[in-house]
Amino acid sequence: MTEKRERRRRVATYISPADQARLEQGLTPSWAEGPGDGLGDEESSPSASVKSGENDARLLENVPPHHVAH
Q1: CA-to-CA distance for 19 and 60, rounded, in angstroms?
Q2: Distance CA 38, CA 16 (A)
Q3: What are the DSSP calls for 29-58, one per residue?
Q4: 2-30 per-position pLDDT tens digit
Q5: What share of the chain is helix, strand, coil (3-state, %, to 5)?
Q6: Where is the composition biased (Basic residues) (predicted)?
């Protein structure tokens, strides 16, 4: 029982056409990129287009003490 078991590796069973094209070009597939990569930039996110208003200012002023960063 001193032998260590090797961990089973995950194997892709399906590769999308877009990832297949990337692999053929020598690029990394989408699953190898970190989170957020390839999903667009921050400017296209909904929160970037929302302007802060009176309600946002009121909410920021009324933060409970236990939610304040130290």
Answers
A1: 43
A2: 15
A3: PGGGSPTTTTS--GGGSHHHHPPP-HHHHH
A4: 677 788 888 878 999 999 999 999 999 88
A5: 40, 0, 60
A6: 1-11
